[in-house]
Design brief:
Beta-lactamase, two-stranded antiparallel ribbon, globular, 38% helix, six-stranded antiparallel sheet
């Protein structure tokens, strides 16, 4: 393998600039291929021994346990949640299938559980049973930021007879040797976790052009503060929110994605893994920010696909192209981002996997996307 160090130097330069201007107080990135780490570096206040909250990059990790259960024929994509969890069917949810939950088409994207109900399984499941549908399952796509994976967690417990965190550790993380990747970390072991802070400023004109409706900066800040709590609240980190706050270093995530490419430990049945990493099942349009581009979701991942979304910004003459994973990966590339700038993906065409984690949640979402594109587009050039 030939490595062009000039491109790696450019990656570092982009990262250091974000550190120097205070946008990213701490950063880690890792690149892997053939099951081995090619590069793993930390910047700012981070040490290589530190870990970060993955936010929604947690979702494929939890979904990967569901893929294992599919391979064992303990459940199917067509299985209605009520067939495993009868109480879930209240308020018309009896038609929700496992596939709906994995594809974010379940119809309860904004459902929440009160904080005091989270830690106790009985109280939590009773709260979920009372969720009501916002629209008919399977008829549209809207990102289920937290809600869907609480349903997956309960399905895991009922199908395996184990706590969802213990099942993930025993069935996926331990077999893959991923000691640094964890969901549910006790307070005593949170000393290596980087605290997430808000940086940058909202550009209300740009944000309102993207979503095509008026926004309130106070509401945005309250929502972002709530998201940051998944990384910063010791009790939530100890709980392990299944769609929001696994913690890891960048190397651990890059190696997880190597296994999604290679399956060297045989954790997943090949046909199920191929479906999860290669078959787009959700082609509903995304939110207005992508101008009607398809969601390109598989049962747990987002695929790059062939269509390029565009967004017309008031600060740009020409529309801005929006393509995931740096825009230089193949259409077969798959992965999942996380709030605050977390990024993780793999490309079957090159065999590369990449992860970037940061402790700075940039309010300038367009600038953050452009920064990520500049960094991640360089990965296929040098690796």
């Amino acid at each position: 393998m030939t490595t062009d160090s000039a491109y790696l130097t450019l990656m570092r330069d982009h990262i250091r600039k974000a550190v120097d201007d205070g946008t990213w107080p701490s950063v880690q990135f890792a690149v892997a291929r053939h099951g081995e780490i090619l590069a793993f570096e930390s910047f700012g206040t981070a040490k290589d021994s530190d870990r970060f909250c993955l936010f929604s990059a947690t979702k494929p990790i939890v979904a990967s346990l569901i893929w294992q259960l599919l391979g064992e024929e303990l459940i199917t994509l067509d299985t209605k949640v009520v067939e495993v969890w009868p109480e879930f069917g209240a308020h018309g949810k009896d038609i929700v299938t496992l596939e709906h939950v994995l594809l974010h088409t379940s119809g309860f994207p904004n459902a929440v559980i009160e904080a005091e109900a989270l830690a106790d399984r009985g109280t939590r499941t009773a709260a979920i049973a009372q969720w009501q549908l916002e629209w008919e399952p399977g008829t549209r796509y809207e990102y289920h930021g937290v809600s869907a994976h609480w349903v997956l967690a309960e399905l895991i417990e009922r199908l395996t007879g184990k706590d969802y965190r213990e099942a993930l550790r025993a069935r996926v993380l331990d077999p893959l040797g991923l000691d640094r990747l964890e969901l549910g970390v006790t307070r005593e072991r949170q000393g290596d976790l980087q605290r997430v802070t808000a940086t940058g400023e909202y550009s209300m004109e740009v944000l309102e052009a993207i979503v095509r409706r008026p926004l309130d900066a106070t509401v945005l800040e309250a929502q972002d503060a709530w998201v940051r709590e998944f990384a910063n609240d010791p009790d939530l980190v100890a709980l392990g929110v299944p769609g929001a706050n696994a913690i890891s270093d960048a190397a651990g995530v890059a190696l997880f994605y190597q296994e999604l490419l290679r399956n060297t430990r045989g954790v997943w049945r090949p046909e199920v893994l191929a479906d999860a990493t290669g078959r787009i099942r959700n082609t509903f349009s995304t939110d207005p920010s992508a101008q009607g581009a398809p969601a390109n979701r598989s049962i747990g991942l987002i695929l790059a696909g062939t269509e390029v979304a565009t967004v017309q910004l008031p600060t740009q003459v020409e529309p801005v192209q929006v393509r995931p994973y740096g825009g230089r990966t193949s259409p077969r590339a798959f992965g999942h981002p996380g709030a605050g700038g977390q990024s993780a993906w793999a490309d079957p065409e090159t065999g590369l996997s990449f992860c970037l984690l940061t402790s700075g949640m940039d309010r300038d979402v367009v600038g953050d996307f452009q920064r990520h594109t500049a960094i991640e587009s360089l990965v296929p050039e040098w690796a």
